[in-house]
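Hello,

I think I submitted the SN-glycerol-3-phosphate job twice by accident. Can you confirm which output corresponds to this input? Input:
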Amino acid sequence: MEFFVDTADLDEIRESYSWGIVNGVTTNPSLIKKAVDKLNASGSGQSIASYIESILQTAGEDPVSLEVIGATEEDMVRQGLFLYERFNPVAGNVVVKIPVNPDMEGQGRGAFDGLKAIKQLADRGIPVNVTLVFTPEQALLAAKAGAAYVSPFAGRIDDDLRKTAGLKFGKTDYYAEEGEADRHDNGIVSGVDLVSRCVDILGMQGYDCCKVLAASLRNPRQVRECALVGAQVATIPFDVLSAMASHKKTVEGMKAFTADIVPEYARLFD
Ligand code: G3P
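Support: Only one job matched these inputs. Its output is below.
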């Protein structure tokens, strides 16, 4: 499984890359906003364009998703082309992120603009990461349109299921598949279930060139379960990635082994 780091914070990207286990970066307008707020607070004066260039250089040859901000086919294609032409020359690793369905009124108007934009960009050879995927049907449509990645949002489906069920929860709380008749979203019983069904549907239908990129992951157990259901990629926030390396018994074991080091053994390493 490939691990992408889900952040636009350059410090986090640099630090996680130093660990040698990161294979890409995903950003979105909310993550860029956080990074820009931090940048402005630091008073560094670095422009957002040069900041994005630094992200691309840090990732080397690994894919970096940059999202469009428009909601019509025309705007998304224009912005996607801009992002690719402006930034891909930096390190050859830009992936354009397009929402599967940009219809904000929920009335179906423009509901296919995302798919049309994906097709236009993919036809030009631009890799597209399709975001805000909440059903396997959307994943199938995105793959048919030529997406290189589809991003099912596991955490946000869990949020919705818990909210509908009236459960109290914290953002990073693990949510297990309950499979209860009244706790599902059109048959999807959890975020991991959504990811699993996206993996199955694309695999069964032969869309091997489209990777399932599990997104909106909030805790290490969700990452584990996405790996177990065969998601090809997980995009993971910095804190969750950090937490994946930890266990209290590892700390305890380290202390015990260190306490037991005899001088004769230590001298071997001098
Ligand atoms: O990967 C998408 C992600 O950035 C959204 O995460 O936690 O805001 O649902 P979250």
